[in-house]
Write a structure and sequence with these properties.
single chain, about 0% helix, four-stranded mixed sheet, 4 strands, mainly beta
Length: about 100
């Protein structure tokens, strides 16, 4: 995805398709999401959460479709997923690319 920093925070800047069906998170530090639910209106093959260049993220009790896998990770450090219906409990120190 192009950065398009001059267009922030326009939600339509990426066009009709983003890499996730829920949250596209890039350049984030110290993120905590809890009790969030993703429920697409129609089947969608994109992950619910797409994280790129994210440091220290906690996902606690999130609900999202598990098929396809809910999390796509690119350059993520210090990630925890706990008590989630979207993915098994996971703790990662650092990962370049991973699907969970």
């Amino acid at each position: 995805m192009p950065e398009n920093a001059d267009k922030y925070p326009d939600p339509g800047m990426f066009g009709p398709t983003t890499p996730s069906q829920g949250f596209f998170l890039r350049h984030v530090t110290n993120l905590e999401m809890s009790h969030v639910e993703i429920q697409p209106a129609t089947p969608d093959q994109r992950p619910s959460f797409y994280l790129e260049d994210v440091n220290r993220a906690d996902f606690i009790a999130v609900t999202a479709p598990a098929t396809p896998p809910a999390f796509a990770l690119s350059k993520v450090t210090d990630l925890r997923i706990l008590l989630s219906r979207a993915a098994k409990d996971t703790q990662l120190d650092s990962v370049d690319h991973k699907i969970i």
